[in-house]
Amino acid sequence: VAPSIPVCEVPSSAMTGTVVELSCKETEGSPPSEYQWYKNGVALLEKTGTGSTRAANITYTMNKMSGTLLFNTVSKNDTGEYFCEASNGIGLSQKCSVKRMQV
Q1: pTM, whole model, 2 decimals?
Q2: Which residue in 3, 26, 9, 18 sits closest to 69, CA to CA?
Q3: Residue spans of beta strands (DSSP E) within 17-95
Q4: CATH architecture classification, 7-101
Q5: Tens place of pLDDT for every residue, the chain, 103 residues?
Q6: Could you give one GO CC term from the UniProt record (predicted)?
Q7: Which end of the chain has a smaller Cβ tally under 10 Å, C or N?
Q8: Adjacent-strand bridge partners of 62
């Protein structure tokens, strides 16, 4: 079964230095969907254990299975427009509407 349009929860504002969790969930997809978060239209990288310079700038943990995007300490750089996409390899992937988070 193709995924339905996911429900995204993105706080509209957050205080610098706080823990912020964005969530994304859809219930129709079978097999269960994987989730990909985007910021300002760019796919966010899944944080891995590699010590690359690019990963050093990553302040979040993205879980593709649960759809959560967790910022341990949110910063002004994390302000932007976020949305997530659910896909399970069946039918078209589905995106939720873009929501702006102001830090």
Answers
A1: 0.88
A2: 9
A3: 20-25, 34-39, 42-43, 60-63, 68-71, 80-87, 94-95
A4: Sandwich (2.60)
A5: 999 999 999 999 999 999 999 999 999 999 999 999 999 999 998 765 555 445 556 778 999 999 999 999 999 999 999 999 999 999 999 999 999 999 9
A6: protein complex involved in cell adhesion
A7: N
A8: 69
